[in-house]
Write a structure and sequence with these properties.
By secondary structure, the chain is of the alpha+beta class. It contains 15 helices and 28 strands. About 50% of the residues are buried. GO terms for molecular function: hydrolase activity, hydrolyzing O-glycosyl compounds. One of its GO terms (biological process) is carbohydrate metabolic process.
């Protein structure tokens, strides 16, 4: 049984997953959502990989360079030791822009002795749909497809190219490198240039991480999660990806396999809210520009998700030739959910717009455009809030009156009114207040199920749903409200399994859910914390943190029994919720210490 024991490296243009033994098993170039160059993750036989092979008597360990996205894999056998520093270059240029080329560097640092290794270099371009052929040229190894979609990549190295390509043993007695590039380099790289790229990239990440505040507790987890969220942001457009992968199954052998290399308005907005709180305002500014760019017309409704360059059509296809992760078919590219109607996205986006205006009202870019979007959102919500939808979990069949969707419709009005207050638009406040109250009364009346003793998944339903825990986070109910306390306890009884939560237990389009949705477990921890059960909340949080992989990374799901990570990886949702929990615990401890010192 395998776990998702991978590290992620990237440069806000694309990303790669590196296994704990130093094998690159997933990488798409030139961008996140491009066809794969390596996809062993989705098919061990034909997917393609870039592996570093040593004898069994070597010990392999792995860690991140602290506060960076540089991954270090150490290979040691007695006095024979070397490190591989994997990274995608990213650093500031003299003109103020960023150097973020579509390339991956593997810098070999000789530590001691004469360690030996072999390389298994097997790129399989375009999702391995056609044969990839390799050719040794004077300056590089060229890999290309002749049939189907034409693709090429170029591998530069300081090592003997024939020995590398044919898997022959290499003795390391000095530093060296491999550089995989989507484009042919105008100036051939060298060991020195690769080292300079490594150092500049480290400096970029250290500077970026230095903006993240220091907290009393869980600093390490907050920092790693923040870097991971940054790695899932696409610099060119401002989009934020849900995850770096496609088709990693929620449950082994089942068909809940989706492509997450897109920008969901919900997930991205939640990410931006958290990273803004951490002080990374440039990500927020880029994201708001992305939103402005995808809403060209005042009357145009938001889709729930877009391509990372703002694409509106994300046609879903299956790649039948790939076996899938541990045989879990199908492998999907594209995502048909882009056609769905989910009414909650307007409230989540309005929450972010309000946050930005509240923090930077005197210095906000695009303020007039954001006010136009605010008015448009209120108009759309006023027309649609009474209608059923697919809900946060993207039920693909019937529409329902989901409680979470109604709560976020209320949130849209609540935040729009606050934006109007900031901007001094009194006539809008008077106009919108009655609608805000009407939606709240509708939720209070119809979402509560007295028999169950909780707010339930949808109007008239007996089913519980973890998403209603966010009612308190968005301010729809107070943490001391008896109904909310009863809801948290009902969800604990029905959906919690040793602190790991189901999203829901009722049947959906694909049967009964059978794994824990990671973000829901963090929501549950936060809810326990908010209602005053802090000791229990902290115990569950500590246990939850122990289920991360060896590098502190989380996927979408956790198996209830084995605790193995499942689903797409790394998952933005999971890491933003981890940060929220960690900040809450850290702040509370700081407040208590201040009170102790005053008493």
């Amino acid at each position: 049984m395998e776990n998702l024991d991978y590290g992620i490296v990237g440069n806000c243009r694309s990303a790669a997953l590196v296994s704990k033994t130093g094998s690159i098993d997933w990488c798409c170039l030139p961008e996140f959502d491009s066809p794969s160059v390596f996809a062993k993750l989705l098919d061990k036989n034909i997917g393609g990989s870039f592996e570093i092979l040593v004898n069994d008597d070597y010990t392999i360990t792995q860690r991140y360079k602290r506060d960076t996205a540089v991954l270090i894999t150490t290979f040691s056998k007695g006095g024979d030791v070397f490190e591989v520093h994997d990274f995608m270059p990213r650093y500031h240029k003299d003109n103020g822009g960023y150097h973020s080329p579509p390339e991956l560097i593997r810098y070999f640092k000789h530590i001691s002795g004469k360690p030996r290794f072999r390389v298994k270099y097997e790129p399989k371009l375009d999702y391995a749909q056609n044969k990839t052929e390799n050719y040794i040229k004077p300056d590089f190894i060229a890999s290309l497809t002749k049939n189907g979609r034409f693709e090429t990549v170029f591998l530069y190295t300081s090592f003997d190219k024939e020995r590398a390509l044919y898997g022959e043993e290499i003795t390391l007695d000095d530093h060296g490198y491999f550089l995989l590039s989507y484009n042919e380099k105008i100036f051939p790289p060298s060991v020195r240039s690769s080292y300079l790229d490594l150092e500049r990239t480290k400096v970029y990440w250290l500077n970026w991480s230095s903006k993240t505040p220091n907290y009393k507790k869980y600093n390490k987890q907050i920092s790693r999660s923040a870097v991971t969220l940054k790695l899932l942001s696409y610099d060119r457009s401002g989009a934020v990806l849900a995850a770096a992968t496609t088709s990693l199954p929620e449950t082994i052998g089942e068909v809940r396999n989706w492509d997450y290399r897109f920008c969901w308005i919900r997930d991205a907005s939640m990410v931006i809210k958290v990273v803004t709180e951490l002080g990374h305002v440039n990500m927020a500014k880029r994201y708001l520009r992305f939103i402005i760019n995808i809403i060209p017309h005042k009357a145009e409704k938001l889709q729930i998700m877009y391509g990372i360059n703002g694409e509106k059509k994300l046609t879903e296809k299956t790649l039948e030739h790939l076996e899938g992760y541990e045989g879990s078919k199908p492998v999907r590219i594209g995502n048909a959910a882009y056609l769905q109607k989910q009414n909650d996205i307007y409230g989540i986006l309005m929450d972010v717009i309000y946050q930005q205006l509240e923090r930077f009202s005197t210095d906000i870019e695009n303020g007039e455009e954001l006010w136009t979007i605010t008015k448009g959102i209120v108009w759309i919500v006023s027309q649609t809030w009474r209608e059923p939808d697919k809900g946060i979990w993207e039920f693909r069949t019937e529409d329902r009156h989901f409680t979470f969707s109604k709560v976020l419709c209320w949130t849209a009005l609540n935040r729009a009114i606050k934006v109007a207050q900031i901007l001094g638009k009194k006539h809008k406040i008077e106009k919108w207040k009655p609608l805000e109250e009407e939606i709240w009364n509708d939720i209070y009346k119809n979402a509560w199920n007295e028999k169950v003793g909780a707010y339930t998944q949808s109007y008239g339903s007996d089913h519980l749903d973890a998403s209603v825990l966010l009612m308190e986070a968005y301010g729809c109910v107070d943490a001391k409200d008896e109904r909310f306390i009863r809801t948290v306890k009902a969800i604990e009884k029905e959906l919690s399994n040793d602190g790991l939560l189901y999203r829901y237990k009722n049947k959906d389009d694909f049967g009964l859910p059978s794994s824990s949705f990671t973000v829901c477990s963090f929501w549950f921890v936060n809810s326990l914390f908010k209602i005053g059960e802090r000791k229990k909340a902290k115990e569950f949080f500590e246990k939850l943190l122990s289920y991360s992989n060896h590098l502190g990374l989380f996927s979408e799901d956790i198996d209830f029994k084995s605790k193995r990570l499942l689903g797409n990886f790394p998952q933005a949702y999971s890491h933003l919720a981890l940060i929220e929990c960690a900040i809450n615990f850290s702040r509370k401890e700081s407040e208590e210490k201040i009170l102790e010192s005053m008493s």
